[in-house]
Amino acid sequence: MKGLRRLRRESRRQVVYDLLLWAGLGIFIAAMGPDPFVDPAAFGMVTAPRIALAAVAVLVGRPWPLAALVLLLPLGPWRFSEGFATVDLSWLLPRRDVKIFPLLPTSPFIIWYAYLTGRRLPRIRPALAAFCLIAVVGVTVVLTMGGDLALWVSMGTALVGTYLVPYLFGLLRRRLLQQRRQTRLSVEAQARLRERARIARDMHDSLGHDLALIAVRAAGLELAPGLGSAQVKAAGELRIAAADATERLRQIIGLLREDSDASPLSPVGEDVAELVRRAGDSGMSITLDLAPGPVPDLARAVVQEGLTNAAKHAPGAAVEVTVSPQRVAVRNGPPRSRPTALPGGLGLAGLRERVRLAGGTLTAGPADDGFELAVILPAGGEPPAFPPKTNK
Predict the structure, then answer these.
(1) Which residues form the Signal transduction histidine kinase subgroup 3 dimerisation and phosphoacceptor domain (predicted)?
(2) Is residue 23 situated within a structural domain?
């Protein structure tokens, strides 16, 4: 049943195409055989079966071109009276007019199916077996005709020109299309990886930051005077839930960025002052020292990463943000409540790569009784000529 389904044409266009192919092949077969008006009996005995055989070959040729190639063997280039070229081999053979690449009216159709065999057949062994059969037929024809050396030359060129070369062209075409498809799939895969990295960047920069600010607000409520025990407990549960959501978000970001080397290269959203103001509104104690001059492109990303880490790992701590044309730093003091976030994550690693690509340096570590994230950026696009500031 599966084989019968493969014989069905997918569109009317394919049906018309195959009917025209069979009609053309039938006309050429008729031209090769007896004249139906002079010898109708011979036409019915010789040409009619060949036309029927051609119909079967066209029927199976679309799904199985190798089967069509074998069916058309009786119509192969086994007449050596006409050829693509005639050469003089009198220096080697008694005959002068040796036909090279014999051609018959049906040869173009056989060449077409040989090409389709290489184009569509994924395995080489069936084609090799069929070519061995074709070679046996050719050898038999030559031996039947006397085995003259000129016949061997004609038969060899017929096999190469009619069967082998078209098959190799089809095989080459298939390999080129496969390579093109693999290239396209690789490009699509890289595009998906870049998009996954972009999504991970946006989730970390926006949603992760907002979750950290929610935890800060909850921690502030937890320490606020005048609340009952139930409200304090609810605020603590909210803070823990925000921390848990942040951890799950980090796991999701890890999946999105798996096997991706793409680094986010452009900040999104608000400027540094607006970012600090929004974090302050959430309950963080922040001071901003914004030096005159141009603000570095990476300043927002550095400040956001520093504020997010401070909110997660040092709840309630005072935070100092310093921004100058060549240095951005975020320092926090000791935490006022127990941190709920787990250490590790992709934010600092991604930021370090972005700073490296920009030609800068990043330091992150303990500073006095707190923690400092500092980035030194080059002036005018040149790598910095001085080491980053460290705190003893």
Answers:
(1) 195-259
(2) yes
DSSP assigned state of 184:
H
DSSP per-residue letters across 4-36: HHHHS-SSHHHHHHHHHHHHHHHHHHHHHS--T
- Among 152, 187, 222, which residue terminates a domain? 187
How many domains, in total, are found in the chain? 2
Cα(4)–Cα(7) distance, integer angstroms: 5
Helix axes 107-120, 165-202, angle to 10 degrees: 30
Position 66 scores a pLDDT of 94
DSSP string, 239-281: HHHHHHHHHHHHHHHHHHTTT------S--SS-HHHHHHHHHH
* Closest C-alpha to 328, from 377, 293, 368: 377
Residue corresponding to tokens 């002052």: 273
In angstroms, the CA 31 to CA 146 distance is 27
Write out the residue range of the structural domain in which residue 111 sits.
Answer: 2-187
Q: Taking a C-beta distance cutoff of 8 angstroms, is the pair 310, 330 a contact? A: yes
What is the reported pLDDT for 79?
Answer: 85
Which residues of the chain have a pLDDT value below 70?
A: 1-4, 90-96, 198-209, 212, 215-225, 232, 239, 243, 246-247, 249-270, 338-347, 380-392
Q: Say which amino acid occupies 64.
A: W
Q: Are 370 and 333 in contact (CB under 8 A)?
A: yes
The predicted structure's pLDDT at residue 25: 92
> Does residue 234 fall inside a structural domain?
no
> How high is the pLDDT of residue 127?
92
* 143 and 31 in a common domain: yes
Best CA proximity match to 304, nearest among 317, 326, 323: 323
Q: What is the DSSP string of 316-354?
A: T-EEEEEE-SSEEEEEE---SS---SPS--SHHHHHHHH
Taking the chain, what is the end-to-end CA distance rounded to the nearest angstrom?
81
The two three-digit tokens of residue 177, written as one number: 């299309």
* List of E strands, the chain: 83-87, 98-102, 285-290, 318-323, 327-332, 361-367, 370-376
Residue among 195, 173, 245, 252 nearest 215 (CA): 245
337 CB neighbour count, 10 Å cutoff = 18
pLDDT at 351: 82
